[in-house]
């Protein structure tokens, strides 16, 4: 079998989790040049085996900081994948891009993805960077993280809004006043926004 077929076969052994899928991607990237790795990823994206598409997404995430085309494939193609597990790996791939680029340097791309039309693209950011204030730059600038996340509170996607609420709740554990002050300015008559607020303040509320 060829490399693509081997990876598809290997991926089928993963029923839950993603550890071996990530390992397979890492091994491929370590063993060949970026263009060859990207070609394998593109072939894997054509299969109906979601685990293989997860490997492809991990590969592209490893390449994205040095290959703008890989980053665009993540944004424009992977975000349209119908499988939720692939979307979870997209979030990890975007965080890998930010880590390799540097979170502050990646801010223009973070903002670009957060302004994308497709909610999956935006969720890759809100979910991928959790816990936001555990990441360099955002650790020192929690207000920037809160502002970026809060701008997504009225999204039409419940999937995205849930991610936003959970990410804000993460931040509230160390910065409760910052999150509380932000939410005080929201229009809670919007049911979706109110749900985000409830998620975001769950830890604060539990502490009385």
Automatic annotation (TrEMBL):
It comes from the Bacteria. It holds the Pfam family DNA_alkylation. This is HEAT repeat domain-containing protein. It comes from Aurantiacibacter xanthus.
């Amino acid at each position: 079998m060829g490399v693509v077929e081997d990876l598809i076969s290997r991926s089928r052994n993963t029923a839950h989790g993603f550890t071996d899928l990530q390992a397979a991607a890492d091994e491929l990237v370590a063993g060949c040049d970026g263009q060859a790795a990207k070609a394998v990823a593109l072939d894997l994206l054509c299969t109906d085996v979601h685990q293989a598409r997860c490997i492809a997404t991990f590969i592209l995430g490893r390449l994205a900081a040095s290959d703008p085309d890989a980053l665009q494939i993540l944004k424009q193609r992977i975000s349209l994948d119908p499988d939720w597990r692939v979307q979870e790996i997209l979030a990890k791939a975007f965080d890998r891009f930010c880590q390799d680029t540097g979170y502050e340097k990646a801010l223009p791309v973070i903002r670009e993805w957060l302004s994308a039309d497709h909610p999956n693209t935006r969720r890759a950011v809100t979910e991928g960077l959790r816990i936001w204030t555990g990441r360099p730059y955002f650790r020192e600038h929690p207000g920037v993280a809160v502002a970026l996340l809060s701008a997504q509170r009225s999204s039409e996607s419940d999937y995205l809004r849930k991610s936003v609420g959970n990410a804000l709740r993460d931040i509230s554990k160390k910065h409760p006043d910052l999150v509380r002050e932000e939410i005080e300015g929201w229009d809670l008559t919007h049911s979706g926004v109110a749900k985000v607020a409830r998620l975001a303040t769950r830890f604060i509320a539990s502490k009385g």
